[in-house]
Amino acid sequence: MKYMLLIYRNETAVQEASKVQVEQMMAAYGAYTEALKNAGIIVAGDRLQLSTAATTVRIASGKTNVLNGPYAETKEQLGGYYLIDVPDLDAALSWAARCPGASHGVVEVRPIWAM
Questions:
Q1: Could you count the other beta carbons within 10 Å of the beta carbon of residue 24?
Q2: Do the beta carbons of residue 45 and residue 81 sit within 8 Å?
Q3: What does the pLDDT look like over 9-26, one tens digit per residue?
Q4: Contacts for 40 with CB less than 8 Å, ≥ 6 apart
Q5: Please, are residues 8 and 108 in contact by the beta-carbon 8 Å criterion?
Q6: Nearest CA to 43 among 79, 94, 85, 86?
Q7: Once rounded to an integer, what is the mean pLDDT over residues 26-34?
């Protein structure tokens, strides 16, 4: 079954991190991604640009409204994701717990609704 691991973190904290902290975080994500590849369960994954680069689209009363920036002001922002294919939720949760994002933010695990 496919699960999306949505990685949320505080963008300000990441931007304020020292060069050494950023290098450590990147190395941790590199090792985690390599472990997913070695296990043969990664389908996709990417880091997202800052939420300030987001554009939000909403249709209201038949009119398209386009807004620059994120939809909502939140403490943590979506920073990246992994799409994994594992046998069950327990396996997905186990991989989510190993994700570096779980130690400095939140990893939301959501099953994919196959179309």
A1: 13
A2: yes
A3: 999 888 899 999 999 999
A4: none
A5: yes
A6: 85
A7: 97
* pTM of this structure: 0.90
Distance CA 7, CA 47 (A): 9
CA 38 – CA 83 distance, rounded (Å): 15
Structure tokens at 97: 């717990």
How many alpha carbons fall within 13 Å on the CB side of residue 33?
14
φ/ψ of residue 94, rounded to 5: -60, -45
One-letter-per-residue 3-state SS of the chain: CEEEEEEEECHHHHHCCCHHHHHHHHHHHHHHHHHHHHHCCEEEEEECCCHHHCEEEEEECCEEEEEECCCCCCCCEEEEEEEEECCCHHHHHHHHHHCCHHHHEEEEEEECCCC
Residue type, 38: N
